[in-house]
Amino acid sequence: MTAPLLEVRGLNKIYRSGGGFLRAPREAQVVKDVGFTVGRGEVFGLVGESGSGKTTIGRMLLRLTEADSGEILFDGQDVRALGPAALRGFRRRAQMIFQDPFASLDPRVRVGDAIAAPIRLHGLRPAGSVKDRVVELLEMVGLSAAHADRHPHAFSGGQRQRVAIARALAVEPELIVCDEPVSALDLSVQAQVVNLLADLSARLGVAYVFISHDMAVVRHLASHVGVLYAGRLVETGPAAAVLGAPRHPYTRMLLAASPRPHAAGRRERAEATGEPPSPYGREPGCRFASRCPHAVAACRAAEPPLDAFADGARFAACIRAAELGPETAPAPEGAPSPAFQTRMALLRAARAEGRAASPDAPA
Ligand SMILES: Nc1ncnc2c1ncn2[C@@H]1O[C@H](COP(=O)(O)OP(=O)(O)OP(=O)(O)O)[C@@H](O)[C@H]1O
């Protein structure tokens, strides 16, 4: 059996700030025990509010930011252990597109030269056919040969993002981490670039980790979704399951807040309620408790183990158990995990407090 393209396990990142000779630095755990898998040619949507840790995870995947601990396996290869030469090889196979294409385009370099540079660097085409390849890439992203001689400032935002995509594709990558690639663009241009990315993934078989705060965009593109809250993946699975039948109350809150096409074609936006906790906070309990419609006192006392939430099936089963009584709950396969038992205890406490913990309650 071939390894998945990307396997991430137990990824952690703590930022430290301040501190001095006698004072310990303040610690912010911005990514905690994150794990997910991306198959070849698959689009994995990583969604969450601003500050939830999406960019930090994207950058750690490509070693632009070093993780503190955890595993990143790319095609079975341990990315965190790569030496400089192997890292260069990996960076040919895995690319990143940023929200601001200027971040990856030098304003003084003509876009044709910017696209040609990585082709030459990695010796991907004989010198005589690099120009033809550049034109092919420009056309692939909906531009033309005439654009090759222009500088980035001569392009609109959408066109610049197309150039950045062509440049990323120049090295024929198997994975592209797309960090909010359309969120700075006008709505109509967003749709065009999202469609282009979908089309390229289908045609070239390139996989994306697609980072976005916009559920509508993720719904359009992703085959699998991970929902990130305060650095924790709270729910993950096939997009149809996570977005069609969300189990975690945070996922429901995000979906309720995401813009939906209005009958008259307008888009409506409801706001997610409450604020995410400070990553520097050290309060005990579940990080979502202050915003959760199902929270009970016990939730504020102890943080549930992460897999209590990441494992959506068990989370739903636990909620049903709280409503119907533990004796009617479907038995989890194998021995109940500590996470399952903790969730059960929390939900029994919810029953004791007389709170309905319904999976259909509005988030
Ligand atoms: N270099 C850094 N030093 C300290 N804290 C940082 C650093 N980079 C990011 N953070 C903090 O880490 C947390 C996660 O940031 P990150 O940019 O990964 O989130 P995000 O979900 O991508 O948010 P956004 O959509 O706003 O970019 C935030 O609280 C941010 O302030």
Which topology of the largest domain does CATH recognise? Rossmann fold
User: Counting H and I runs of at least 4 residues, what is the number of helices?
Assistant: 12
**Any idea of the CATH class of the largest domain?**
Alpha Beta
Helix content range of the residues, please?
25-40%
CATH superfamily heading of the largest domain: P-loop containing nucleotide triphosphate hydrolases
Q: What letter string, H or E per element, gives the SSE order? A: EEEHEEHEHHHEHEHEEHHEEHHH
Tally of extended strands? Answer: 12
CATH architectural grouping of the largest domain: 3-Layer(aba) Sandwich
What does the overall shape look like? globular
| Largest β-sheet summary | 6 strands, mixed
**Contiguous runs where pLDDT drops below 50 for at least 5 residues:** 261-270, 320-334, 355-363
> What fraction of residues sit in β-strands?
15-25%
Biggest sheet: strand arrangement? 6-7-8-3-9-10
> What is the SS-derived class?
alpha/beta
Task: Measure the end-to-end span.
Answer: 41 Å
Give the C-alpha Rg: 23 Å
Chemical compounds bound to the protein: adenosine-5'-triphosphate
